[in-house]
Design brief:
37% strand, 19% helix, disordered N terminus, 6 helices, OB fold (Dihydrolipoamide Acetyltransferase, E2P), 377 residues, five-stranded mixed β-barrel, alpha+beta, 18 strands
């Protein structure tokens, strides 16, 4: 997923700092290779940079996550591939897009893909998401969201635990900064990775990512696909809000059977209760799968987010005036302009009070809304 790559931008920055110090460094994805001239072209955040290997220069391949060249191997430039990530100490001269390097450190795209898959599986197995209900400098308590009553989980940082916090005005994981438990407050959203104790009431964390997020239910007023934004009316405040969609935003639309199942479970009804379409329970493979496999999984921490990972995406242009949406966003400086993290459409069954046309968010939550790896995802 595109969001998972943002974590690797952070990883590359940390690796570069560890290898080369805090000075200026160049990093990016290799777009072109000219082995005869010992040149590679990098796609960086600032544009293309052509790097020429010095006559006595070397190329070293390092495993993703390593911060020491002790485990790096020297390779020929012909062993480097398009799509690999590269780190180069130094920057091009002002106004230039070329540089000469005595050292180029590469991470192969295959190794990165394997590491990403491994970490995603680990987060799916040992990760939790929730809303902070109590906080201290030593540990926090979160309400783990699924469907129904949230469960309380105590999170304490383990040895060498990494603590990060999202920027107030950015949904990008690379904009997250080093933080501490002291910065986490009641009402914040937290995603944590670690091991639980025997009775599942406490988690010793290896990584904690926090942020102050806002969840609203709204109806669409207008859509501007060209500007990548939409205007919605907040159902709670009745005020219009401008929602900006970024490259990191996730837009999903719940299939009707899944929305009905979630609505029923949220109200504590039996599966199939309150179906507006009168269809028999489990009428389709999708409905049966969600009702059995995913329904049971909803009792676990973070499983709502895992379920939403399987929901098909929707394009901004597919949204229509009057559509109901649930929006998770960062809390920025302006209350009437939000950056979308997750926008979920097809939620009318969840928001509508039975027997009425009234819609509200109630106690429903999208959880932390962060990526599956602890950030955009």
């Amino acid at each position: 997923m595109a969001r998972s790559l943002t974590k690797w931008i952070v990883l590359v920055a940390v690796t570069a700092a560890a290898l080369f110090g805090q000075g200026a460094n160049t990093s990016g994805v290799i777009e072109k290779i000219n082995a005869d001239d010992k040149q590679i072209v990098l796609k960086t955040e600032g544009g293309e940079v052509t790097v020429t290997l010095a006559p006595n220069g070397t190329v070293r391949r390092i495993p993703p996550g390593e911060t020491s060249l002790q485990k790096a191997e020297t390779v020929a430039i012909t062993e480097v591939s398009v799509g690999d990530r590269a780190l180069v100490p130094g920057k091009p001269a002002e106004g230039q897009n070329t540089m000469t390097a005595r050292l180029v450190v590469v991470m192969s795209k295959g190794d990165i893909a394997k590491k990403q898959a491994s970490e995603k599986a680990d987060w799916a197995k040992r990760g939790v998401i929730g809303t902070v209900t109590a906080a201290s400098p030593d540990e926090i308590a979160i309400a783990v969201h699924g469907v129904g009553t949230p469960k309380t989980l105590i999170i304490a940082p383990g040895a060498n635990c990494t603590v990060l916090r999202y920027s107030p005005d950015s949904v990008k994981f690379e904009d997250a900064r080093a933080s501490t438990l002291a910065e986490i407050h009641t009402g914040d959203q937290v995603r944590a990775l670690g091991d639980k104790n025997a009775d599942g009431t406490k988690l010793t964390a290896e990584e904690i990512v926090s942020g102050s997020f806002r969840t609203i239910a709204a109806t669409v007023l207008s859509v501007d696909a060209a500007k990548k934004e939409l205007r919605v009316r907040d159902l709670a405040t009745k005020s219009p809000v401008v929602v900006k969609i970024t490259a990191e935003s996730i837009l999903k639309k719940l299939p009707t059977p899944m929305a009905q199942m979630l609505a029923a479970r949220n109200r504590g009804e039996a599966p199939g209760a309150g179906r507006g379409d009168g269809a028999p329970q489990g009428r389709s493979g999708e409905g049966r799968g969600e009702g059995r496999g995913e329904g049971r999984g909803m009792r676990g921490a973070g499983d709502l987010t895992q379920m939403l990972d399987r929901v098909p995406p929707v394009e901004l242009a597919d949204l229509k005036n009057g559509d109901a949406v649930i929006l998770l966003s960062t809390v920025g400086a302006s209350a009437d302009q939000l950056n979308a993290i997750t926008l979920l459409a097809g939620v009318e069954p969840i928001l509508t009070k039975p027997g009425t046309r009234e819609m509200s968010l109630g106690e429903w939550s999208l959880g932390g809304g962060m990526g599956a790896e602890g950030g955009n995802q």
